[in-house]
Design a protein that fits this description.
globular; alpha+beta; 4 helices; 4-stranded mixed beta sheet
Amino acid sequence: MISVTMVEAHTYEVVVEGEIETTHRVHMSADYHKKLCGGTMTQEWVIVQSFKFLLEREPNTAILASFDLPVINRYFPEFETEMSNRLHR
């Protein structure tokens, strides 16, 4: 299970339950939110889908503890295209 809680403007705490529970701090700017989904989904939903994407590729314990969402695209160049598809843009 993935839970997302806003802790300050554009910054979220993400808890991923698994064999080992992990906590992550993620920042997503309004501009990047619009880039991924046109602003049609909540930021929380975009982050949940982003973590689902990550968990398909690596265990939760391998996900950075703190990062800006665009960093995912550096590690997985297909991220933005895949997110656009997932979010039905």
